[in-house]
Design goal:
There is one protein chain. The protein has 32 helices and 29 strands. By secondary structure, it is an alpha+beta fold. Helix 29 runs parallel beside helix 31 and helix 30 packs antiparallel against helix 31. Bound molecules: zinc ion. Zinc ion binds next to helix 8 and helix 9.
């Protein structure tokens, strides 16, 4: 799944790239035949099928965990399975059992009420049918056991499926009516019983179920009578209560017929529309991830319940239909002829074993273009007829073909299906969704008019296609066991956006450069907040599942994978991935499965790194460390030793008291330099809080540089003397330090300076409170004074305000885009904090001084006035740097820049009708995300900020109803209207707003609160130093 990009990609890379060309010694043949008996592997933390089918394991674990903490609901189902036959009288009739159950329920109710009153325990209200609510609870019973027993007697009350039945194959028939937007279906599910049970529990939501039946799949097995069936809406489940038990390991067939509406809400099986030749046309398409397949048919809607699917669609012959697999019966894909009854019926080929949320189908009037990939895979692009005719999909089709070959080569695993369709739809809740063989894209992310589209538009679109095609392996073929490890697919797909784009456009140098500003720096901002969370997060409720799709999963996931790839080296990394994919294809995997395969790859070359032990620190703990490197001056051989320490980097320390105890295993690369030379990097593993390491001989002029090319997911700080030497180096000869590290130094320095001064004191172990005179003294000490006081910079998480400002003094010498991009992000951040202060001109003048010479040198694009299609004339470097400098100059008030901009804008509006037409072609409705863009843009303008903030609060009910579930849009909006708030009064307004409206608003508001608190704190603690430094600032170097 590809979410909306939070910031625009501007494209633009200009450095040649040495792509790794390692290949494998052997090529493994792709397993074409689907192995139905293939079971997923398991890990200790995320048990999959095998694990929860093992009664021994479940009995051991069920004693220890409350039901709510079980990630697969396995303990509950098995305890029920094991205990139920024993407690029932052997000869009890059904009626007697019912009477007993009822009596037990009444007794239980009395006992529970008494216990609750006595112990003051609060029970959650349960809103389902009364049947089966036979929880047993006695005095002294532990809550976990009680919950387990309740779940055993009524397994639909647990939030996860009980695991007694496992689906093997679905035969799904759906009749779609586009005239009244309804559909009717029936599904036959072959299930294997793994634990004896009297209940069939599966997912169904917003479906009208008309009939159910269960039959035994063996000769003479016959029907299993269904006592009753009911929906349990609280857990979106359908329950069949049977007259007799299903026995393990027999197989059965469960039949359900149902109907429902084709909704207008972009989830499940939904409809949307567009106009063609002035006429409104409709289409209906699915979006099942993460938990919406259950809105289209009853199914075991959890990712580990993989099965094969045979789908038939019936619809009006004037429409065509698509699904994951090619058509097997009912005419070719272009045959729209009706059957005898006036309907078209298309039966699609059986899918490989896959998760329900990757199933997809569409009914539409689209046309297509087709190409062939390696091995004869048909790649087709479907879109509205006018877009296909204009060639708007040709670019994506072309790169999709190349990418399929790229991934097959990189992973050494063939694409699994005979075809891959890319479907462009006018409305979609995400940028795209990677359904296997039928990936769906919102039009703006796949259609492109090459004549008028800007380079940045093309870049953004390219990355979405690269992302979705990567998922055909990481996601579709090998699926995370459960949503807690969604980063296992999203982190990979996001990382490969950069690797795959490098393959298509090697000169853009995405993975080495653009990754830093767009992924690494971006996510470290979020992950440095105490409201952040570990990348692997436990998910209990279905309602919480959508929350795991956040920037931490995508961007931190990608950053960790990149760090790992660099530590392992490309060849071993690829070898490990190949082994992982081959071992788990058509199944599920957890993070430990990946670590195991990567460790094996390392061991095969005699490198004994336990990848799991290293990575658990990074995936199970929130945040990241700041590593401080300083020359060791107290040792005997001082000139050969460095001291390295690590601590949890946090912008504010208020949130979690014990977080400073976090530690990581840090792969730190270090290089040394002096004036014009730099010695090659060295990898040092940091395991402890503080360590001493021997390096080459250093003199007083030798600087140290950590995290070479910023491959690591952490920040680096130095002693002040080292910062001075690095700044000096940048001013005299910046090329000695790599582009990535120049950008990294800027990003680290500004963020280290944003930290709270009292962290230093608290971490020193001195028992001062924030309000103590000691802190206040520090907080009010001018930065120059603080420099002499050892408190500064010696500890991680702190830098005087002057250091980053001094650092960007070299920018006049900077010809590369990336460091400018890193600096501008930090400067805009400061701008938001300062633009309403009295001394603002001091700051904007300083920035303009840094920008002036390079801005005048680069000027404006000479072809800007005559506009479109000329982007390729300028190199990316020129185009991107020019744009960045123009934006900086105009934003900070360069008058010449303003005049020029006004001139161009009026020219553009009068001459560039083509471009506007193109925009209106891609969507005839204002896309929902555009509405958010408008609000966020108003908020970016200093004069619009109060307006945006007020609008947001006034319209919260409407906005939340509309975007609440689309969490990314929601958090983008919340961030956009709050990030500039920085006074006590505004903080109070925000707190007040959260208190009165915040229930259910998710983590975005908690994050906003922490950011605004940080802003207020910065003003209180740092603004003075900041302006003091600026008043004394030396003039920047001019050419
Ligand atoms: Zn994705």
């Amino acid at each position: 799944m590809h979410v909306e990009a939070q910031q625009k990609h501007f494209g633009g890379f200009f450095f040649s790239c040495n792509r790794a060309t390692a290949t494998f010694a052997h090529r493994t043949n792709h397993k074409k035949v689907v192995d139905e008996d293939h079971v997923s592997s398991s890990s200790s933390s995320s048990p999959s099928f095998e694990a929860f089918c093992d009664p021994l394991q479940s009995q051991q674990s069920s004693k220890l965990k409350p039901a709510g903490a079980m990630r697969n609901g396995r303990g509950t189902s098995e305890q029920w399975a094991a205990a139920a036959p024993g407690v029932r009288p052997r000869a009890a009739s059904v009626r007697r059992r019912l009477v007993l159950a009822f009596a037990l329920a009444v007794l239980t109710l009395v006992a529970v009420t008494a216990a609750a009153v006595a112990l003051g325990v609060r029970f959650e209200e349960c809103g389902g049918p009364e049947e089966g609510a036979a929880a047993t609870a006695g005095p002294g019973r532990r809550g976990g056991e009680r919950a387990e027993e309740e779940a055993a007697a009524a397994p639909w009350r647990a939030s996860r499926l009980p695991g007694s039945l496992r689906p093997r194959h679905y035969d799904l028939r759906v009749a779609v009516r586009m005239d009244n937007f309804t559909f009717a279906g029936d599904v036959s599910i072959d299930v294997e019983c793994v634990n004896a049970t009297r209940f069939v529990v599966l997912h169904a939501h917003a479906l009208q179920v008309s009939s159910v039946s269960v039959t035994a799949n063996r000769p003479g097995g016959g029907a299993v009578r269904v006592q009753r069936h009911f929906l349990f809406p609280a857990n979106q489940m359908l329950v069949l209560v049977l007259h007799r038990e299903l026995k393990a390991p027999r197989t059965y067939r469960v039949n359900v017929t149902f109907d429902a509406a084709i909704e207008d809400e972009l989830l499940g099986f939904f409809r949307s529309s567009y106009t063609l030749d002035g006429e409104r046309r409709y289409l209906a398409v699915t979006q099942f991830s993460p938990t919406h397949a259950r809105k289209a048919f009853p199914c075991f809607d959890e990712p580990a319940y993989k099965a094969t699917f045979s789908l038939s669609l019936r619809h009006d012959p004037q429409y065509t239909s698509l699904a994951n697999m090619p058509v097997e019966r009912g005419g070719g894909d272009d045959d729209d002829g009706g059957g005898d009854d006036g309907w078209t019926t298309r039966r699609f080929a059986r899918t490989p074993r896959m998760s329900t949320y990757y199933l997809a189908w569409a009914v539409c009037n689209f046309t297509s273009r087709e190409t062939r990939g390696d091995g004869g895979v048909a790649i087709r692009l479907f879109a509205r007829p006018d877009a296909v005719a204009s060639g708007a999909g040709d670019y994506s089709l072309h790169i999709a073909k190349r990418l399929l070959g790229f991934y097959q080569d990189f992973f050494q695993v063939q694409y699994s299906l005979p075809k891959l369709d890319l479907l462009a739809v006018p409305k979609h809740p995400y940028a795209a969704m990677e359904n296997w063989g039928l990936s769906v894209f919102v039009e703006q992310k796949i259609l492109l008019d090459a004549r008028v589209s800007s380079a940045s538009y093309r870049m953004e679109l390219t990355m979405v296609v690269v992302h979705e095609i990567c998922h055909q392996w990481f996601g579709d073929l090998v699926t995370p066991v459960w949503w807690e490890d969604v980063w296992l697919k999203e982190g990979f797909a996001h990382y490969f956006e950069y690797v795959g784009t490098d393959f298509l456009f090697p000169k853009w140098n995405m993975e080495k450069q653009r990754f830093l500003t767009d992924v690494l720096h971006e996510v470290m901002l979020l992950d440095g907040l105490s409201s952040s969370h570990a990348i692997s997060q436990e998910v209990q409720d279905a309602a919480d599942i959508h929350r795991v799709f956040d920037w931490i999963a995508y961007k931190k996931g990608a950053a960790l994978i990149r760090m790992l790839a660099n530590v392992m080296g490309q060849r071993l990394f690829r070898k490990g991935l190949n082994d992982y994919l081959l071992s788990h294809m058509y199944g599920n995997a957890a993070r430990d499965d990946l670590w195991r395969k990567l460790s094996e790859a390392m061991r095969s070359e005699g490198q004994g790194i336990d990848i799991g032990a290293v990575m658990d620190r990074w995936t199970l703990q929130m945040g990241y460390p700041v590593v401080t490197i300083s020359k060791n001056r107290s040792e005997r051989f001082a000139t050969r030793y460095i001291t390295v320490s690590q601590e949890h980097f946090l912008y504010g320390q208020d949130g979690r008291g014990n977080s400073s105890s976090l530690q990581w295993q840090v792969p730190l690369t270090v290089a040394m330099g002096n004036g014009s030379w730099v010695c090659s990097e060295r990898l040092i593993w940091i395991h402890n809080k503080t360590e001493t390491h021997r390096v080459s001989e250093m003199d007083d002029e030798t600087w140290l540089l950590g995290n070479i090319n910023q491959t690591g997911y952490f920040r680096v700080n130095y002693d002040l003397q080292n910062w001075k030497l690095l700044i000096q180096q940048l001013r005299t000869n910046p090329q000695v330090i790599s582009v990535g590290n120049r950008a990294g130094l800027i990003d680290d320095a500004f963020n280290l300076a944003r930290c709270r001064i009292s962290d230093v004191i608290i971490n020193e172990g001195r028992k001062h409170r924030t309000s103590s005179p000691y802190i206040r003294y520090h907080a009010r000490t001018p930065s120059s004074g603080c420099l002499t006081m050892r408190c500064a910079a010696r500890r991680a998480g702190y830098l005087p305000q002057g250091v980053p400002l001094q650092l960007i003094g070299y920018l006049a010498e900077e010809a590369a885009f990336l460091p400018w991009h890193a600096a501008s992000r930090a400067l805009y951040q400061l701008d938001k904090l300062l633009d309403r202060t009295d001394d603002y001109a001091l700051f904007s003048d300083y920035v303009l001084k840094q920008v002036a010479s390079r801005y005048h040198q680069m000027g404006w694009p000479s072809n800007a006035a005559n506009g479109d299609g000329s982007v390729l004339r300028a190199s990316y470097q020129t185009e991107e740097l020019q744009r960045e400098l123009i934006m900086l100059a105009c934003s900070f008030g360069n008058k010449q820049c303003h005049r020029q901009a006004v001139g161009y804008i009026s020219d553009w509006i009068s001459s560039n009708k083509n471009r506007l037409l193109n925009l209106s072609l891609t969507s005839d409705l204002v896309a929902e995300q555009d509405a958010i863009d408008v609000v966020v843009h108003v908020g970016r303008n200093p004069r619009g900020r109060n307006l945006a903030w007020r609008f947001f609060r006034d319209k919260w009910d409407v906005l939340n109803a509309r975007y609440g579930e689309a969490l990314f849009m929601n958090s983008r909006l919340i961030n956009g209207v709050t990030e500039f708030l920085n006074t006590d009064a505004e903080l109070y307004e925000l707190k007040d707003f959260i208190q009165s409206n915040g229930v259910g608003a998710g983590p975005a508001l908690a994050r906003a609160l922490e950011v605004v608190e940080g802003n207020v704190r910065w003003h209180r603690l740092h603004r003075r130093h900041f302006y003091q430094w600026l008043r004394k600032a030396p003039s920047p170097a001019h050419r």
